[in-house]
Amino acid sequence: MPKVLTVAPGSLAEELQIEPGDDIVAINGQPIRDVIDLQFALAGEEISLDVRKSNGEEWIIEVEKEYDETLGVEWEHATVDKVRLCHNKCVFCFVDQVPKNMRKTLNMRDDDYRLSFLHGNFVTLTNLREGELERIAALRMSPLNISVHTTNPELRERMLGNKKSGEILAQIAYLAQHEIEMNTQIVLCPGWNDGTELDRTIEDLAQFYPAVRTLSVVPVGLTKHRRGLADLRNCTAAEARHVTAQIANWQERLRPRLGVNFVHAADEFYCIGDSEIPSALYYDEFAQIENGVGLLRTLLDEFAVLEKKLPQKLSRKRHVAVVTGVSAQKIIRQVAERLNAIRGLTVDVHIVSNDFYGDQVTVTGLITGQDIVKQLKNQIAADTVLLPDVMLKDDADIFLDDYEVEQVRDQLQKEILVVPPNASGLVYGALGKTHALPARRRYEATFARVQNAVSGS
């Protein structure tokens, strides 16, 4: 049963005198099995809560609330019962490639369809229990994000190390039949699921459009900590250009039939191949931007709008440093060059290579605090350092290696300004307009998807 971990000040739960340690036994007389039962039950406007207080008292609370009003509590477990763990042994699993002394959450492999529905996590559907596909359909748990990787049953079983993984097309067909919307992805491993296998997967999934709304293709990520794992390698620049061309050819074939491009390459392919970032039309509705598909295009387009409003000079001189990873450096340097045309503003770009995970990991979001300190200590002339918040934990100023932002600040002896990884964050951070900075991104569960499912929209 759901146990309350924290209660937000001023929340409905606080008003109802619900406290940490209390259990929600039932809602509207129905026992709560997991977070899905909980969220659907709480979506109503009139609810009855059976609460077991931490001191053993039994309360029944009748409450009227707004349709989209939450209780304002954090639960002891994200799924109320326990997070469903991954049973696969994927040849490309990133968790198998991290140091063993990392914090526990970084070594946990979740594969939970409930977190896919509520948070947008990608899942493989290989550990569904009997009746759970039917539950997804009955509760209209849409959209789901599904890691497909390949629709070749034998190849998928080899890549995922799970004999149940070959059922993916039948599972997708069932969900499509019941109008469940899906976003799908392929982690592309050279020599495994590229070439003709990639063609096969694109063709198979496109037949389910619009139920399968999008397909993203992302490059495999390999660290220096791979030991005793499958023989994999990264895409070369030539292979990255071949993949983007192959996807562009598929778009040309699919667009007249579907009305959309459907399949998209992740930004990293364009960085690896040193290719031009496609226009916004390429990305349809940017449905997989949180999967690294279209982030650089949105940054460029947003900057083009902000550029028209840039001042010619600053009233007070300002010198800032921007920290970024290897893959995004070309775009960041391009923006910094334009900012440096403002009189009184100096923007330095500092590229941090990934010593912690290995130099084959080039994305900004996997840069650690210790690499920043090791590579930039005594190297920064600027007064203020801009750090993209994708380097940090969602709910705290902590890097992947448990370095805190304060530690980096103290080691560099510089002011640290954490900014969103977009054009607004870069521009307003550089100009010192902290009041105009967009809110830090936080990937928290909301009622949005539950409301859509309940209303059938």
UniProtKB/TrEMBL annotation:
<dbReference type="InterPro" id="IPR036034">
    <property type="entry name" value="PDZ_sf"/>
</dbReference>
<dbReference type="Pfam" id="PF19238">
    <property type="entry name" value="Radical_SAM_2"/>
</dbReference>
<feature type="domain" description="Putative radical SAM N-terminal">
    <location>
        <begin position="65"/>
        <end position="214"/>
    </location>
</feature>
<dbReference type="InterPro" id="IPR041489">
    <property type="entry name" value="PDZ_6"/>
</dbReference>
<protein>
    <submittedName>
        <fullName>Fe-S oxidoreductase</fullName>
    </submittedName>
</protein>
<dbReference type="InterPro" id="IPR058240">
    <property type="entry name" value="rSAM_sf"/>
</dbReference>
<dbReference type="InterPro" id="IPR045375">
    <property type="entry name" value="Put_radical_SAM-like_N"/>
</dbReference>
<feature type="domain" description="DUF512">
    <location>
        <begin position="218"/>
        <end position="419"/>
    </location>
</feature>
<dbReference type="InterPro" id="IPR007549">
    <property type="entry name" value="DUF512"/>
</dbReference>
<feature type="domain" description="PDZ">
    <location>
        <begin position="4"/>
        <end position="53"/>
    </location>
</feature>
<dbReference type="InterPro" id="IPR013785">
    <property type="entry name" value="Aldolase_TIM"/>
</dbReference>
<dbReference type="Pfam" id="PF04459">
    <property type="entry name" value="DUF512"/>
</dbReference>
<dbReference type="Pfam" id="PF17820">
    <property type="entry name" value="PDZ_6"/>
</dbReference>
